[in-house]
Amino acid sequence: MDPTRCEDLRSAIFAGDAERGVSAARLLLAAGQAPLEVFSGCIQPALVEVGERFSRLELFLPELMGAAAVVNAIQEVLLPQMQGDASQATSGRIVIATVSGDLHDIGKNIVKTLLQVNGFQVRDLGVDVAAERIIRAAEDFKADIVALSALMLPSLPYARDVIELLQGSERYRGRFKVMVGGGCVSREWARQAGADGYGDDAVEAVQVAQALMDKAGVPP
Amino acid sequence: MKNTSHLLDLIRRSLAGPLVDEEDFNLKRVSQGVYRVVREYEIRANPAAIVNQDDELADRVWQAALDFLAACGVYCQDTRRVILYSREEIEARLREAPSQVWLGEGTDACLEVARKVEDARVPLNMGSPIGSPVAEELFVPLMQSYIQEPGVDVTCAASLMTVFGQEVRTGSPLEVLAAWHEADLMRLALHKAGRPGMAWTGLTMSMSDVGQLSAAGPAGLRPGDMHTFGLISELKTNFAILNKLAHAIRLGGIIDPYANPIYGGLGGGVEGQAVLIAAAMIALSAFFMAAMVGSSPTHPFNFNDTGPEVMRAASLAFQALARNSHLMTNLTVTPVGGPGTRTLLYECLAFTVMSTVSGISRILGPRSATGSIPGHFSGLEARFNGEVLQAAAGMERGQAEQIVQRALSKYADQLDKKPYGMPFQEVYDLDTVQPKAGWLALVEEVKKEAIGWGLPLA
């Protein structure tokens, strides 16, 4: 891997400069680098550093969002060229939503962005999302994980509805792992509700998602 | 000043402002807008200090917040439009804002007044867990433990985890019943504590308008009680919030809302969060006709506001407000520590000293154990907090900084360990509703320690 071009790409990710990032990625491909090597040798280490610096609050949400935008733009260029290797360039596919009755989105947005910079493909359904819509979106997106956020106590029952609907349906049972988090959600609640994972904060949410994708699972 | 004309104007702007995608509002108007004014107004906080010592910096934060708010506006999620007021309109509204208000009734009534930086007047003490979750059977003794404290002036209800044994759902009839149940139980707690006229706010668990409004009439909240709602982070509203506001104005209620900008979020670090906090407080007054405005700025991972970065931003923002307006402002202390821990007391001490010298008119809380662990809070920490308010009033910022740094050094390494402590029933005798000896002794030990640092506690 050409270290100068890789450094250009890394620098574009940190600067949130999608145009420069795509250009650097194209140059690496033109130099004969395999797309998967660009991901694993250049993009992935930069994203790990972005995530770690955010977890220490040396970087903030706008920079995190900028890095995620660069990677999304690069993926659009690289993924069509990766054929069978494409799945190896992503950590997993996640549908994320704030459940019915709850309009808070900033915590969910932080989790979403940190998942993205850690290589997950994330479809964000927004806030106040009904259980049926979350499940339909998970099916449509071919999600591995459904991630649910709830800040306020009276919205918690709606998170449980999603889990019950998934567990009670022959069609959906076992198809998606469910992870939960948010101000009113506790580890104990997650365990009782039958969630597959619980993240106390955005950093733990990424660790939980990675563990769920490793198929080892994590106790909530 | 609240009135129907201003309300109609606000509603009209929410229906006629620029149509903007919410993601664009977040990124372009809020995030880029904050970064712009931080750069243009040269907002750079001293990374070594918690309590701001720089008056010119505080004044630049005020100017930056006005500039930012006039350009950014407040987003209405239901109409997807931005509510905009010009800088001149905002400044005119701020001139109309009240600088004092009576809260409560009879001999339990108290006067809240706007304060200045290093003001000798003591801020009010709203002793309360501020909407933290509590089991139904513990609600009355727990709230009584706050209300009975002589150093507590006003209060705010905890949130019932169930109503008549049933889990509450947003927008359901159970939310209506829960709001009424909360009002009934608060009346009972006020009477049991012998302070029936004390002002309270609450109904905070009612996220929907129907839940809160059902009990927000004179049979629930009285004329001397406060009506509250929170802006959605960052700088967002919706029809449910505007419905609550419209109802409160038609009742002639005291409007006491809040906004809790998130550190490391759309505003970035200390400087951006300070601007966002100040702008949100200005918006609550100028757009939403609040009588008083408040915040519990939030750390994104620990969910507290007692860490150094958030306290630094809060001190700067509230000094900007105190120096440049006559708004009544409040901060909620949201510690990580819970009852029975030294961490909780050190956090309260640092945050409340910082807040008092920075010019707040009222402290809220403590919302112990980040307000998220059921029943992990008690009235004794509000007694302690009230004593800290008394001791810190009139203190110079330089001395306050030294005390805050001493306290911070005692708990900074505990924050990510989340020492949530013990539940109410383990630190209080439920028969007498009095703190147990162990919890009392710990408070006395920390008080002696703080007196040694120069905090003149009684």
Q: What do you see in this structure?
A:
By secondary structure, chain A is of the alpha/beta class. Helix content of chain A is 54%, strand content 11%. Chain B is α/β, with parallel strands linked by helices. Chain B has a single domain, classed as TIM Barrel. The radius of gyration of chain B is 20 Å and the shape is globular. Chain B contains 15 helices and 19 strands. The interface between A and B is medium-sized, with 30 and 40 residues.
Please bin the fraction of helical residues of chain B: 40-55%
Distance between the termini of chain A: 40 Å
Uncertain stretches of 5 or more adjacent residues of chain A: none
Shape of chain A: elongated
Largest sheet of chain A: 5 strands, parallel
The gist of it:
The complex is a heterodimer of chains A (220) and B (458). By secondary structure, chain A is an alpha/beta fold. Chain A has helices at 3-15, 18-30, 35-55, 61-78, 106-117, 131-141, 156-167, 187-193, 202-213, and strands at 92-98, 120-124, 145-149, 177-181, 197-198.
Write the layout of secondary structure elements.
The complex is a heterodimer of chains A (220) and B (458).
Chain A: H1 3-15, H2 18-30, H3 35-55, H4 61-78, E1 92-98, H5 106-117, E2 120-124, H6 131-141, E3 145-149, H7 156-167, E4 177-181, H8 187-193, E5 197-198, H9 202-213
Parallel strand pairs in A: 1-2, 1-3, 3-4, 4-5
Helix pairs in contact in A: 1-2, 1-3, 1-4, 2-4, 3-4, 4-5, 5-9, 6-7
Chain B: H1 4-16, H2 22-40, H3 55-72, E1 74-76, E2 81-83, H4 87-96, E3 100-103, E4 110-113, E5 124-127, E6 133-134, H5 139-147, E7 155-156, E8 159-160, E9 162-163, E10 166-167, H6 173-192, E11 200-201, H7 209-215, E12 226-227, E13 236-237, H8 239-251, E14 254-255, H9 270-286, E15 292-295, H10 308-324, E16 328-332, H11 342-357, E17 362-365, H12 379-392, H13 397-411, H14 424-427, E18 428-429, E19 434-435, H15 437-452
Parallel strand pairs in B: 1-13, 5-17, 6-8, 7-11, 12-14, 15-16, 16-17
Antiparallel strand pairs in B: 1-2, 3-4, 9-10, 18-19
Helix pairs in contact in B: 2-3, 2-9, 3-9, 3-10, 4-9, 5-6, 5-12, 6-7, 7-8, 9-10, 11-12, 11-13, 11-15
